[in-house]
Amino acid sequence: MTEEDPNAGQDLPVLDDGALQDLTEEAGEEVAQKFMEEYLVMLPVRAAKIFKGLTRGDTDTTLEAIISLRASSGMAGAQRLEAYCRSLESALKHGHNPDMTAVKAVLFANIRQVVREASRRGHLPPKSHGPSGP
């Protein structure tokens, strides 16, 4: 298949805590929480890089942004988003130029699901990023 599959990964969980549990076991709870917060904050930035690359017709930049989002999504346990990125990556590598409107719709739908699920599970960063403690 040379076109991206907008339904890629729909049978997968939006957010699988196993990946975050592995990171917690390897690096500690604070590191895992910080990673998840940073991942969630960077979602729109990574999506914007994908759109910028697609708009410019810059396949290398687009692929780099998609791979970055795919890898970080895998580490965060965002399996549906990771699967969609893998599908998009494959389409680009096979010379398909995906429809920007469709990519935006599917990517943002996946991102909204991840943020909603992360919020439900208490993974969102605090509203204030000011100094904490005494």
From TrEMBL:
Domain of life: Bacteria
Coiled coil: none
Gene Ontology BP annotations: phosphorelay signal transduction system
Domain HPt, first and last residues per copy: 28-121
InterPro entries: HPT_dom_sf, Sig_transdc_His_kin_Hpt_dom
Official protein name in the record: HPt domain-containing protein
Organism: Arthrobacter globiformis (strain ATCC 8010 / DSM 20124 / JCM 1332 / NBRC 12137 / NCIMB 8907 / NRRL B-2979 / 168)
